[in-house]
Amino acid sequence: MGQSDFIPRLESLRGVAAVLVAVYHCGVMYLQYPASGFSRLYFAFANGLGCVVVFFVISGFVLARSLDRASSISFSSFARHRAFRLLPASIAVVGLLTFLHERFGFYVGFEGSFAPLNVLLNMLLIKSDINGVMWSLTVEIAATPLIFMSVRAYRKRGRTPLLAVAAVLFGLSFVGQYRDLIGANLAPLYAFLAGILVHFEGPKIARSVSLRMSAWIPALGIALFLAAGMLKQDAGLMILMDCIGGALLVLAISQWPHQPMMKPLDWPLVRFYGRISYSFYLLHMLTVAPVIALGAGWFEHLNPWATAMTLSVLTTLAAAVPSLACYKLIEIPGINLGRRLAGLNGLHNRAVAQ
Predict the structure, then answer these.
(1) How far is it, in rounded angstroms, from Cα 271 to Cα 155?
(2) Nearest to 276 by CA among 207, 237, 331
(3) What is the pLDDT along the chain (354 residues), one digit of tens a residue?
(4) pTM for this one?
């Protein structure tokens, strides 16, 4: 995607979602979960699965925008772009966890298998038992052909085929065999289609909504996200609410860029976490255990709410440094390498044609 296609507030929204995933993981360690009573208020904001659904909506929108503006792009080129965007950081993080497990017995969440083949499968995002949060990236990989074909289908036949596929995927989201088909939760897969539809249909919607009424769109999106967070994680209704809420937020950001409600997404700190959001998402669980160990004496004097919130703040701050290093030393070079290879491939194709 070219710089002219870049929407900073979408990146910021991804950063907010990544931080809230960390807040969610800190909360489940100390507060009653599944949420009930006052803990519902915490998980309304720290809506972990909802944040992942928002990731998917953003990805669908951004990738559809990129594909739609390209004069022509093959699926192999699109898949290569996705691979160089996602795999370098995942390979590095799984490699780091493998080293830490071998050297110190360290692992995050439940201890996965560190056999060589399983490590390789985790690096390639085919499995996600070494760093559990990477399940969403397995779904991102699985969604690559769906996104590509959906953009092609919209160009030829409009929104009807996408709505039909989304309806089928929504129905399947209640079927356990489908949800666990690839070892990762496929239930929110239709959220990518929501993002694609926002890209194509957003301008039409914007023309039919007055500027005054448009202020209610992000408000409704946030309200749906908060309400969904108080429901049972993995529930079909919750995922649908998060999908609609995320789509409304992306719609508001892309079509009404001057809305006051979205201005916090321009704050420098929010922009910073937006830039490092992918690495932060991969690395935040690695910082939780050290933070707990260092603050054990302090945490024991706090109530569960205070402990969860304090751990959230400390984890968010502690994860920023390694995430920034991963972003600059691994993510960016990986993206640039993919672009260079794409350029070389283009030169080769032109030479063959001549």
Answers:
(1) 33
(2) 331
(3) 334 478 999 999 999 999 999 999 999 999 887 767 788 899 999 999 999 999 999 999 999 999 998 767 889 999 999 999 999 999 999 999 999 999 999 999 889 999 999 999 999 999 999 999 999 999 999 999 999 999 999 999 999 999 999 999 999 999 999 999 999 999 999 999 999 999 999 999 999 998 889 999 999 999 999 999 988 767 889 999 999 999 999 999 999 988 889 999 999 999 999 999 999 999 999 999 899 888 878 888 889 899 999 999 999 999 999 999 999 999 999 999 988 887 655 433 433 233
(4) 0.93
Using alpha carbons only, give the angle 169, 172, 175 rounded to the nearest 5 degrees.
Answer: 160
Of 316, 318, 326, the closest CA to residue 22 belongs to: 316
Cβ–Cβ < 8 Å for 107, 118: no
Q: How many CB atoms lie within 10 A of CB 72?
A: 5
Give the 3-state secondary structure percentages of the chain, helix then strand then coil, rounded to 5: 80, 0, 20
What tokens were used for 236?
């079909």
